[in-house]
Amino acid sequence: MLQNSVEWRSTHKAPTDYKVAIGEMESIVSAVREGDAPQQVWLLEHPPIYTGGTGALAADLLDPERFPVFKTGRGGQYTYHGPGQLVAYVMLDLAKRGSDISKFINDLEQWIINTLLEFNIRGESRKGRIGNWVDRGKNCEGKNIEAKIAAIGVRVRRWVSYHGISINIHPDLEHFNGIIPCGVKEYGVTSLLDLGVNATFTEVETALRKNFETVFSNKTIDIE
C-alpha cells in the first residue's frame, strides 16, 4: 500500500443510512490515525434527512417533521442530504499535509470549483460563507442573485478529517425549504440540473476524481 495513498470508495448506487455512515466514518478515522488504514474518499447518497452541525440554530429548522433530523459533530449549520445529491466524505491525515485546517477548507472549495468547471459552471467561494455559490445575474430590481450549489461541513479529530462536501446534481430543491440552509436567508439553492446541466452521478464522480488529483496531489486506489 502506498504510504500517502487515498482510497476511493463509491456506494452512491444505493442510498446509505446517515447514522450508518457516521458510525463507519468514526471507525475509519480511528484506523487512519493509528496507521491501520489508508486515507479515504467515500462517495455516496443519503435518503432525505436534515443534519445540524455544531453551529446550527433552532430557528433555522423550519419544518422539523418533514424529514428525520440528525444533530452531528461536523462544523456548520443545517443542511439537507437526499436523492440527487452526491456526498463526498473526505478522511485525510492532515498531519501529513501541514496541519493547516484553513488550507484544507480552501482546498475543498477549489476542488468543487474545478469540478464544476468540467460542466461549464462557474462556482465561486464567498468570504464569510462556506460552500460554493453560483452567480445567477440580477433580478428585476437590479439585485444580484446567488444560489448555493455545494456545501462543505467537516470535522477534524487528532488531525484526521471527516465529513466533507456535497454537490447538488439533481435533488428536489423544494426539500431545502424545511431549513435555512447553512443559516443564509438571502440566497437560495441550485443544482446542475437547475442550471441546465443534465449530468449523471458517474460523470460528476469522474470529474471529482480528476480534480482531486489536481488539488490534493495524491495517488489513488479504487476499492469496493
Structure explained in plain terms:
The chain has 224 residues and is of the alpha/beta class. The chain has one domain: BirA Bifunctional Protein, domain 2 (2-Layer Sandwich). The chain is 22% helix and 32% strand. It is built from three helices and twelve strands; from the N terminus they run βαβββββαβββββαβ. The protein has helices at residues 18-33, 101-117, 201-216; strands at residues 6-10, 39-44, 49-52, 69-71, 78-81, 85-91, 124-126, 129-138, 144-157, 160-168, 188-189, 220-223. Strands 1, 2, 6, 7, 8, 9, 10, 11 and 12 form a nine-stranded mixed sheet that branches. A hairpin with a 2-residue loop joins strand 7 and strand 8 (129-138). Helix 2 (101-117) packs across helix 3. The longest helix is centred in the middle third of the chain and has 17 residues, at 101-117. It is globular and about 55 Å long. The mean pLDDT is 89.
Structural class: alpha/beta
**Biggest sheet record:** 9 strands, mixed
Shape: globular
Number of strands: 12
Number of helices: 3
% residues in beta strands: 25-35%
| H/E series | EHEEEEEHEEEEEHE
Instruction: Indicate the CATH class.
Output: Alpha Beta
Q: Helix content range of the residues, please?
A: 10-25%
